[in-house]
Design goal:
Layout lengths: L24 E7 L3 H12 L5 E4 L15 E2 L6 H21 L10 E5 L2 H16 L5 E2 L2 H7 L10 E5 L3 E2 L2 H14 L3 E3 L4 E7 L2 E7 L2 E10 L5 H6 L8 E10 L11 E4 L4 E6 L2 E6 L6 E2 L16 H14 L1 H6 L1 E11 L6 E4 L6 E5 L5 H18 L21 H11 L25 H6 L2 E6 L2 E7 L17 H13 L2 E4 L4 E6 L3 H8 L11 E7 L5 E11 L2 E6 L4 H12 L5 E4 L7 E4 L3 H8 L14 E6 L2 E6 L8 E6 L4 H11 L6 E2 L2 H11 L34 H5 L9 E7 L11 E4 L2 E12 L4 E8 L9 E5 L2 E8 L14
Parallel strand pairs: 1-2, 1-11, 2-8, 4-13, 11-19, 22-32
Antiparallel strand pairs: 3-7, 4-6, 5-6, 9-10, 10-11, 12-15, 12-16, 12-17, 13-14, 14-15, 18-19, 20-21, 22-28, 23-26, 23-27, 24-25, 25-26, 28-31, 29-30, 30-31, 33-36, 33-38, 34-35, 34-37, 35-36, 37-38
């Protein structure tokens, strides 16, 4: 069987429970009978969780799985995504034998084409990650390319990467096969049952209301694709998703269109081609997608829109230019059906911030077939254990800002989001749509002073400063044009004084009689310190993995200021509120109420003394201490901490006077050579100093010992903390990996992340993050390596296919007698 667009699939292929009444209570409800929901149900069942009910409003696979092209690959652009994809590729290879159903898995390979120098760099980088994870690859010569794809021209090809173990599968039958396996382990499956509402009691999920009555449960998993957003909203939960038209067309029969043809990905031209029944199927990920409101999507299953031949015409012309046989054969089918997309073109997975035991697995951005087995396995483990067993940082549903659930915003962003799958995945790439919605109080002034803005979780931030008032990004896997501008900002922080707008930091006040208890339970460090003392700490999950990091400053006997990275605002709120539940303490999100201005560098103390009558000596304000100061025409809380490794202060004025404070600092510092600095400089400065970056160097599967952050742990403080029991079971002398600092000896290459680290010719780990160390004059970063590696060995790092000699150290390469760590 090699038939796509199959509307015949349903649970009737293996069971008939259509007339059975719904149970009144089950342990777990999975909503959505597509390939994601079926995979989650299966992986729950094989783990022993078979008191599960899978509900589908129509029939299995009738949402978006039925119209997928079924492409399967073992490699993606990062280590985490490659691990998930590789599991899926291996799983599909066994699915037919396991289920007894013909799923038409064709292991024909895939061929990705580069037509620009930048795309060559991207594919070489992807090849390195694939090689690192044991995925077979081959960089093609022209002759080998023509041998594999004789129907395609070689004109304009700058490089091509073959993944010989890739292929495609019948997505509808794969969905049914997974559901059949889940059913065989005891999972109940009900088709034609519409879930109308998620039922909650306080902060806990307690069941669902369906068109056939209420089913009570202990946990719910939303795996219902583009319908997830609105169903989550019935319980007051935000899951930012929006639908778009997704197109693929099929040619008439073509001589030479055979099953052995690898999937052809012409990334720079935004299309793919795969074989189907003696024909060629051409699918588009065009850069100007067509968003669709949910109200425009038919809800009775197997939804389709009218053909959009005019919209498809540019992609068609490019495909026919590369494969001339398409033009002469013509097309006999146009499929236009809905798919859902997230604001950053990555998944929405995990437990929601608003409601305990409500999990999400949605927003797969047309990659659901690739990742269904891997996400099914990992989310099942997450649901059972309560914590993720993989590095979920980039896909965690809690990473989004609340405003990103807004439908007007989502519609604008989705127009761009569809094409992001095949667009260049440049380092530091910025989305272009849905911008300038969420801005800091200093945004307008920074724009006047030459800021080039990027965004994280929908929030604008100044990443670097250029000449004039409208600097623009260009991108590169090497040195972009703004490389030297960042170098100047970096140098000013090391030698003079710079100003950072750090207002996107997530900021919370915890107050009340039980505020200390809440903070002590949340933090690994001892927070019972003197007033105005800041403490750097970790926030763990029950497995002792690092969910968050940041500072907690004691403002008074029962008041604390918690500051964490900007993209963790929702996660931090959920983490603190769940601990505060039932206690005499409130958690107030003051992120928008307080600006944050970083004054960093050896001359920061001198600059501050010019705009404030306070004493700025070391005795007046010691490192990691705070105080309220008179500054400019107002007041601000001053915290002496630094993320750059130099003398530095963070000022927290209220949002309404923030611009006044910045203006005073800027004007007073002109003869000191004051510069504005952005987040790219901040990243290069912290990389030299070896400071960890949450989401790269540390995350939910990294324990403090492996991360080299043992100093944040206070085992003896009263009351314990989240994750302490798991931490007690770990041996600090036997970490899962060792965190080290890496600097290249060659001054030219630039790190991205996930590059493979070698010792004496053998792979021993990977770069978790990196930047260019402008003080050191080379790429520098942090790596996770095997714990028993001899650090006196000869080290190299593979960058875009080439090995570069490297220095590896247990101490940061830049470690002056300045300020140590933020907190």
């Amino acid at each position: 069987m090699d038939r796509l667009v199959d509307r015949t699939v349903s649970a009737n292929m293996f069971t008939d429970t259509s007339h059975d009444p719904l149970p009144t209570h089950v342990r777990t409800i999975v909503i959505g009978g597509g390939i994601i929901g079926a995979s989650i149900a299966y992986h729950l069942s094989v783990a022993g969780e078979n008191d599960t009910l899978l509900l589908e409003s129509n029939v299995l696979g009738s949402g978006t799985s039925w119209h997928a092209a079924g492409l399967v690959t073992g490699a993606r652009g990062t280590t985490t995504m490659t691990k998930l994809a590789k599991y899926g590729l291996d799983f599909y290879g066994q699915l037919e034998q396991m289920s007894g159903l013909d799923v038409s898995f064709q292991r024909c390979g895939s061929l990705s084409v580069a037509r620009t120098a930048g795309r060559v760099d991207e594919l070489l980088y992807a090849k390195d990650v694939a090689d690192q994870q044991g995925v077979r690859t081959e960089w093609l010569t022209e002759d080998r390319y023509k041998e594999l794809w004789p129907l395609a021209t070689y004109s304009g090809v700058a490089g091509a990467l073959l993944l010989p173990d890739d292929g495609h599968i019948n997505p509808g039958h794969a969905t049914v096969a997974l559901a059949k396996l889940a059913h065989s382990f005891g999972t109940q499956i009900r088709e034609n049952v519409a879930v109308l509402k998620i039922l909650r009691q306080g902060d806990l999920v307690v069941g669902v209301l369906t068109d056939q009555g209420i089913v009570h449960c202990d946990r719910v998993i939303l795996a219902c694709g583009l319908w997830t957003r609105d169903l989550a909203a019935t319980a007051g939960v935000k899951v930012p998703l929006y639908a778009a038209e997704h197109i693929h067309v099929r040619s008439a029969e073509i001589s030479g269109a055979v099953p052995e043809l690898p999937v052809y990905r012409d990334l720079d031209n935004s299309y793919y081609i795969r074989h189907e029944a003696g024909r060629l199927l051409v699918g588009a990920f065009e850069p100007d997608g067509l968003p669709r409101a949910l109200e425009e999507v038919p809800s009775n299953g197997f939804a389709e829109f009218e053909p959009e031949w005019e919209h498809f015409a540019p992609i068609r012309a490019k495909a026919e230019g590369v494969v001339p046989a398409l033009s002469s054969a013509g097309f006999d089918r146009f499929l236009n059906a809905p798919e859902s997309f997230t604001p950053d073109a990555n998944f929405a997975v995990g437990e929601t911030s608003e409601l305990s035991n409500l999990f999400v697995a949605a927003g797969f951005n047309s990659q659901g077939i690739i990742f269904a087995p891997g996400i099914g396995k990992e989310l099942a483990e997450w649901v059972i254990s309560g914590t993720p067993g993989f590095d979920s940082s980039s896909v965690d549903v809690q990473r989004f800002s609340g405003h990103q659930n807004n439908r007007k915003y989502l519609k604008a962003r989705t127009k761009e989001g569809l094409g992001r799958l095949y667009a260049m995945h440049w380092p530091n790439l910025q989305m272009e749509t849905g911008r300038n919605v969420r801005r800091t109080p200093l945004h307008g002034r920074l724009a006047e002073l030459g800021a080039c803005f990027g965004e994280v979780n929908g929030g604008e931030r100044a990443n670097w400063y250029g000449p004039g008032t409208s600097p623009t990004y260009d991108y590169s896997y090497g040195r972009p044009t703004w490389f030297d501008r960042v170098a100047e900002e970096h140098k000013a922080a090391r030698e003079g004084v710079v100003l950072f707008d750090l207002s996107p930091f997530a900021k919370f006040e915890v107050a009340g009689p039980d505020a200390l208890e809440v903070c002590q339970t949340a933090a690994t460090a001892d927070i019972d310190v003197e007033t105005d003392k800041a403490v750097y700490t970790l926030f763990l999950n029950e497995r002792a993995g690092i969910e968050l990091d940041g500072t907690i400053t004691r403002l008074g006997p029962d008041r604390f200021l918690v500051v964490t990275p900007s993209f963790t605002q929702q996660k931090t709120a959920a983490y603190l509120n769940r601990i505060a539940r039932g206690k005499a303490a409130v958690v107030f999100d003051c992120t928008a109420a307080l600006a944050t201005i970083g004054v960093m560098g050896p001359k920061s103390r001198e600059l501050l003394s010019r705009v404030s009558p306070e004493d700025w000596s070391d005795d007046a304000q010691k490192y990691t201490h705070g105080r309220t100061v008179e500054i400019a025409e107002g007041y601000a809380y001053s915290l002496r901490v630094s993320f750059v490794g130099e003398l530095g202060y963070e000022l927290y004025p209220s949002a309404d006077i923030a611009t006044n404070v910045l203006d005073a600092l800027w004007e007073a510092g002109q003869d000191l050579g004051v510069k504005l600095a952005g987040y790219h400089a901040l990243d290069s400065l912290r990389s030299e100093k070896g400071f960890r970056h949450l989401g790269h160097d540390i995350g939910p599967i990294d324990d403090p010992y492996s991360a080299g952050l043992r100093f944040t742990i206070s085992m003896d403080k009263p009351g314990g903390f989240v994750g302490k029991d798991a931490l007690l079971k770990l041996d600090p002398a036997a970490p899962a990996h060792r965190t080290v600092y890496v600097a290249l000896e060659d001054p030219e290459p630039v790190f991205v992340h996930d590059e493979t680290v070698y010792c004496n010719g053998q792979p021993v780990g990977r770069m978790t993050s990196g930047s260019y160390g402008h003080t050191l004059g080379s790429a520098v970063g942090i790596a996770a390596i095997e714990p028993d590696v001899d650090l006196s060995g000869d080290f190299e790092v593979r960058c875009k296919g080439r090995l570069y000699p490297a220095k590896v150290s247990r101490r940061p390469f830049y470690d002056p007698k300045g300020e140590r760590l933020r907190g």
